Amino acid sequence: MNMPEIIQMGNPKLRLVSEPINEDMFGSKELHELTESLFLIMRQEGGIGVAAPQLGINKRIFVFGWEEQLGYIPDTVLINPTFEVIDCNIEEGYEGCLSIGTIRGEVPRYTKIHYKGFDVDGKLIEREAEGRHARVVQHEYDHLDGILFVDRVKNYASLGFHEELIDAGLLPPKRENK
Fold first, then answer.
1. Which of 22, 97, 115, 168 has a CB 3.0–4.6 Å from the CB of 83, allowing a cystine?
2. Interior CA angle at 140 toward 74 and 31, to 5°?
């Protein structure tokens, strides 16, 4: 498999609204390969989510998942996703993006959502999410509409490089991979 690369902010492909994936693609070799590529690059880059537009692919699909001390979210593929806000409370939290390097910034997101979409074989996935889970789904969903987290930052003074924010005590230190 030829390993795709994450495209970076400034590439116009990141600003496109992605096209839905046709139902006749569910279960196809092409869709399985795309999903494998997304998970592979997510892990290789140390991310917790990645969307097809970040690979320059204008399709409504993203993957996410993590296993760590802050909680466990199973590896999930969401194709043609939608979400609804369950709780109108909004919380600011630092976000980063594989398409933006080591810059981080505080982004307001809804704290609790209900999302649904399809897996690679067309099976419906529906979940409620809160906290980090809800934040990641909203972040990846934004990629499908050509929106980057920096577009949502309200306080530009919160923008900074990851290491500098750690040194300033605004972000926790990096954990060693075990």
1. 115
2. 70
